[in-house]
Amino acid sequence: HCNGGKKSLCVNLKDVRGIELVWELVKHVDVVVENFTPRVMRNFALDYDNLKARNPAIVMCSLTGFGQEGYEGDVSRPCTDPVAQAMSGLTWITGERDGPPYPIGGGVGDTITSLNGAIAILAALVSRSKTGVGQYIDLAMVEAAMFVDCVAMPYAAANGGRTRIYRNGQANTYTFPMGPAKTKDGYIALQAPGRGPESPWARLCQAMGREDLVSKPEFLNDDLRAEHAPEVIKIIEDWLANFTRDEALEKLAEARISSGPVLSQPEILEHELFKSRGTFQTIHYPELGDVKVVGPPYKFSAAKACVRGPAPQFGEHNHDVLERYLKLSNSEVEELTRSGVLYESDAARLREQTKK
Questions:
Q1: CA distance 234 to 321
Q2: 136-140 and 59-64: which strand pairing?
Q3: What is the average pLDDT across 166-192?
């Protein structure tokens, strides 16, 4: 879903002729994105200064684990998603209070960094539209992962390093109750913070038929309820045990409590909300037939955001790109492929045959 509709040109950067192709292509593009360790692009002389010399308007974005200076000066030290989660503080706040810290499932660190990269690139392009000059963006995954959380690290930074957000497993700490809770046939997520008779917490208590909890000294505010988390969770789940997930969500909606189902991936595919928003698209792959993919989450008023086609096979568009931008002939591209300057995968050749 990330590579859908793109074109694939595979160049051997260890061949000087491959480097020369990239230098020529740079004259025709707006943006260069790379996520090697910092030394790689420098070693290939494809760093920003060299690219800018050929195209002053170029915007270049480097996405690395630790930034262009590396980890304490070590530019060859690798960093993957779980490391970025750990160093950004996300792992520290995930898991049970007295248990080990957990990474968030999936590749959120990678995705968060890419999203920040897209935002930065768009900002640089807006700047270029005014100045005519591009710029370089140094983006570290450890910082991007930290930036995504609007609560834990901002609070600690503003308060001299004092920690407020801890691992709490089922529930969060900065408002309470907040998190998943078990019903008769599944889990929901809810958030009911605040204090006083008009608060979401009070509305939840009224829905449960437990108005007495609103004025209970141990439950007067979020911090106090968090200190008595097991008791609060038990009260809520004892009430939820009387209802199916859908019944519980209906009652919470009536009480204007923020809530929703905890969905598995198969449930997400069939959920009416995502169907109505057109979250998923069907893309035709020549080798596979129709494949369902996750579409972009934004809905424009005057444009359609979508996955434009199948993800390319490696080297599938060598001819297309080089013939279009560098005016190379078909025979020249074939010769570059035979000599190892270009790479075309078996899957790319098979796809071309399938198309025919």
A1: 61
A2: parallel
A3: 89
